[in-house]
Design goal:
Elements lengths: L1 E5 L3 H12 L3 E5 L3 H8 L10 H10 L2 E4 L10 E4 L14 H13 L5 E4 L7 H6 L9 E4 L18 E5 L2 H11 L6 E3 L3 H32 L3 H8 L23 H11 L5 H11 L1 H12 L8 E5 L15 H10 L3 E5 L5 E2 L2 E2 L8 E4 L8 H4 L4 E4 L8 E2 L1
Parallel strand pairs: 1-2, 1-4, 2-3, 4-5, 5-6, 7-8, 9-10, 9-13, 13-14, 14-15
Antiparallel strand pairs: 6-7, 11-12
């Protein structure tokens, strides 16, 4: 098949590689000209996709990145894999999805199977994509992405793939396509079910993380170890699923997807108060962390040298999207601390460079990559650990 993927970020490039490995000819469209240039020179920006792998696909003619939307025409399948962020008011922002639909409307003159992989609320495929594309009878399916950056156990091939479509023909075509590079393809009754499943998966995680984060605060106030309590609870062989507390949530999915679900819930008259409370708890965790750090410093961090260890949102990846480290650094600086940060995987972020991990007055461990030595962290006089990985340190 000739395939076009709109968006060459974490999701789009991952799907492009999976499809190219299956023998499809892939056009990777993106509006970012510098990213397209890097991709066509064989430079990957995604963990788990090597430069050699990308170069081999380019040499074989099975992958090409482009900013030319005219190349979308004539493709058998067009996948939408664009960001679905939040606005400044923390409401769903579908502007990238709408732009993708406009690109298809303006450039694609022959029928194609159009698949939306971008995560959004139920009704997005039907009302925000298909309804905006007129004049050509396309097929439409929804197959929300399940990409987990840095996960070496579960990838595109072995993670079950959900498919919901507007017509039986679209379901059949989508199953035929995904079956070429996914082991398990699961059909659901509608695109709305597929869309809802994705945002509920991450809402489930958001709510449970918020629960353990709130419990960690309760346990600290009671003078007991929240992590020890959670470890003890996890010895029960049934009826309990272990989640761990932390400085908040990051990445594209967990901080964002529950808000999409709450938004659509409000539109149909359900207030979704439980989901909103979970968002509030996790968004407040950086403030709680800084409060605890200030307490550990004797009531003030003014003038103290503080190093924040790890600014990526999760261990062993370079992804800083929605990282709680940003708020923690900002709050510490507002409190008068002299803050540097160390993250060898990120290197450059927010116009700053990763500093050497030297002895400081205080170290705040937000994310612990495997390549970071605990002994280097322990050179600082006081350690606050958000990860539970530093023995003897104060922490959540």
């Amino acid at each position: 098949m000739r395939l076009a993927i709109i968006g060459q970020g974490y999701v789009g490039l991952t799907i492009a590689v999976g499809a190219a490995e299956a023998g499809h000819t892939v056009i990777g469209f993106d509006v970012n000209a510098s990213l397209v240039s890097e991709l066509n020179s064989g430079k990957s920006h995604i963990e788990g996709i090597s430069n050699t792998q990308l170069t081999n696909f380019i040499s074989a003619g099975t992958y090409k990145a482009t900013t030319d939307a005219a190349l979308l025409d004539g493709c058998d399948v067009i996948v939408i894999a664009v960001p679905t962020p939040l606005t400044q008011a923390r409401e769903p922002d579908l502007s990238f999805v709408h732009t993708a639909a406009e690109l298809i409307q303006n450039n694609v003159k022959s029928p194609a199977l159009i698949i939306n992989e971008s995560t959004s609320y139920p009704g997005t495929l039907r009302n925000e994509i298909a309804a905006r594309i007129t004049g050509i009878t396309h097929l439409y399916a929804s197959s929300p992405e399940r990409v987990d950056p840095g996960n070496t156990e579960w990838g595109t091939k072995n993670t079950p793939r959900l498919i919901g479509a507007l017509t039986p023909e679209a379901v059949a075509k989508a199953k035929e396509f995904y079956s070429t590079f996914c082991d398990t393809v699961i059909e659901v009754s509608s695109p709305e079910v597929a869309e809802a499943a994705k945002i509920f998966e991450n809402t489930f995680r958001q709510v449970n993380i918020a629960l353990v984060n709130e419990f960690a605060q309760i346990a600290d106030a009671l003078g007991i170890s929240g992590r020890e309590v959670l470890d003890a609870a996890a010895t029960k062989p049934y009826g309990f699923m272990e989640f761990n507390p932390g400085p908040g949530v990051g990445g594209h999915c967990i901080p964002v997807d529950p808000t999409y679900l709450a938004y659509v819930a409000n539109k149909v008259g359900v207030p979704a108060t439980f989901i909103k409370r979970a968002n509030e708890v996790n968004l407040a965790m950086p403030t709680y962390v800084v409060k605890r750090v200030i307490e550990g410093a004797g009531g003030s961090v003014r003038g103290k040298a503080v190093v924040v260890v790890g600014v990526a949102y999760k261990a062993n990846v370079a992804d800083t999207r929605e990282t709680p480290a940003a708020s923690i650094i900002d709050l510490l600086r507002e409190a008068g601390a002299s803050v540097t940060w160390h993250d060898p995987l990120v290197g450059n972020w927010r116009g700053e460079e990763s500093s050497d991990l030297v002895a400081c007055d205080m170290a705040v461990v937000v994310t612990k990559h495997d390549v970071v030595n605990v002994s280097d962290i322990q050179r600082s006089a006081y350690i606050f650990d958000c990860t539970g990985s530093i023995t003897g340190a104060d922490g959540i």
